[in-house]
């Protein structure tokens, strides 16, 4: 069974939060870090993984992504602080080999 994730990326000062979904977390975070795609995260320099959740089904992950995107910033910050109170980059130390 292939795992899926929702994740939050933040910029250096934690003023911008991006929410995404992926079935390959390491590859997708790497893509954000090297600005592989020109879009929101590259424009606003969101290159810190600050929160994630894991799902057994991509449809569950997509539903959760929609739910989180509809929420306000305060709820997103509360989730981040529950897992990562210092807003550290959770991908620090990951090896980005494929």
Automatic annotation (TrEMBL):
Domain (GIY-YIG) ranges: 2-78
Pfam families: GIY-YIG
InterPro entries hit by this protein: GIY-YIG_endonuc, GIY-YIG_endonuc_sf, UPF0213_domain
SMART domains assigned: GIYc
Highest taxon above the source species: Bacteria
PANTHER family per record: BSL5627 PROTEIN, UPF0213 PROTEIN YHBQ
Family: Belongs to the UPF0213 family.
Name by which UniProt lists this protein: GIY-YIG nuclease family protein
């Amino acid at each position: 069974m292939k795992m899926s994730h929702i994740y939050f990326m933040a910029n250096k000062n934690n003023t911008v939060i991006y929410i995404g979904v992926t079935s390959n977390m390491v590859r997708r975070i790497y893509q954000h870090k090297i600005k592989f795609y020109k879009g929101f995260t590259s424009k606003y320099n969101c290159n810190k993984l600050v929160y994630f959740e894991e799902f057994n089904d991509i449809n569950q992950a997509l539903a959760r992504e929609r739910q989180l995107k509809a929420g306000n910033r305060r709820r997103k910050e509360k989730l981040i602080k529950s897992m990562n109170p210092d807003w550290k980059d959770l991908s620090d130390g990951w090896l980005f080999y494929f």
